[in-house]
Write a structure and sequence with these properties.
This protein has one domain (about 15-270). The protein has helices at about 5-10, 20-40, 45-70, 80-90, 95-110, 125-135, 135-140, 140-145, 150-155, 155-165, 170-180, 180-205, 225-230, 235-240, 260-270. It is mainly α. The relative contact order is 0.14. α4 (about 80-90) runs parallel beside α10 (about 155-165) and α6 (about 125-135) packs across α12.
């Protein structure tokens, strides 16, 4: 049986540099969500949480940070790109340079023990949350992760979002309080953030352990239907790892991808250009 020390070393890949600031921050949000939410429940507050989960998660993170900025699977006018990226910053998943830099490292070195920030080779809990609690300089030092997102790092707006993304919660909180009091603040910021964090983290963790494969990708990525429901189509993770620069994650007709629906809507309006699709003749594994 492993000792507690050995278990810790296994989870964090040998590192024991626990970041207490991150531990306290995420613990505080989880406690507020668990304790205050039942006391302040209302259907309208829950509706606000779900709406912002989609706006900041589905549009900001899935469509914006991920498919638009990380992989450049489609292009939109600069003004619209900045609006979508701001929604992503409001998700409290880090600034765009941090998020994109880390995700590009993930794809360049998928499941490598040291070079993939949230390597599934270190186990479920590492790829789910421990990589944040035991942060490596390569993933969290702006001077290092910026090298993986030079196209964003050279733009002042993205440097601003990267530095002040957390401060954006202040005007959001003021607006939510004006609309519905403290219940809107609790659900619109704390409940929404906790749900959205775990939704995103399940792509890193569960989708590298469970599910099926359409393509023979050179990693353990899997397609997982319930993660796709939580993440607006990002759970078709094997499809994505096989064709990371394609704007659509769903491949088979029943692999519903609502993020793609949003991209397609922008394309029909003439706002999304250079939309990358699966190559003609792409065939899944039988």
């Amino acid at each position: 049986m492993m000792t507690n020390q050995n278990q810790t070393a296994s989870i964090c890949g040998g590192s024991t540099a626990l970041n207490w600031t991150n531990v306290l921050f995420f613990s505080f949000f989880h406690l507020i969500a668990l304790i205050a939410a039942p006391l302040m429940f209302s259907w309208s507050a829950l509706g606000v949480a779900l709406l912002l989960h989609w706006l900041f998660g589905g549009i900001g993170i899935c469509m914006g940070y991920h498919r638009m900025l990380s992989h450049r699977s489609f292009r939109v006018p600069r003004w619209l790109e900045y609006i979508i990226a701001t929604f992503g910053a409001l998700a409290i998943q880090g600034g765009p340079i941090f998020w994109v830099g880390g995700h590009r490292q993930h794809h360049a070195h998928t499941e490598d023990l040291n070079k993939d920030p949230y390597s599934a080779s270190r186990g479920f809990w590492w790829s789910h949350i421990a990589w944040i609690l035991y942060p490596s300089p390569e993933s969290f030092d702006p001077k290092l992760y910026s090298h993986h997102a030079p196209d964003l790092a050279k733009q002042a707006f993205y440097r601003f979002l990267d530095r002040y993304f957390l401060a954006l919660q202040v005007p959001l909180g003021v607006g939510l309080y004006a609309l519905g009091g403290w219940s809107f603040v609790v659900y619109g910021i704390f409940v929404r953030s906790v749900l959205l964090w775990h939704s995103t983290w399940f792509v890193n963790s569960a989708c590298h352990e469970q599910g099926y494969r359409n393509f023979a990708a050179k990693d353990g990525s899997r397609n997982l239907w319930w993660v796709s429901i939580l993440t607006y189509g990002e759970g078709w993770h094997n499809n994505h790892h096989a064709y990371p620069h394609v704007a659509k994650s769903g491949f088979r007709w029943w692999e519903i991808d609502t993020t793609w629906m949003a991209i397609r809507s922008l394309q029909l309006m003439g706002l999304a250009k250079k939309v990358n699709l699966y190559p003609k003749g792409t065939i899944a594994l039988k």
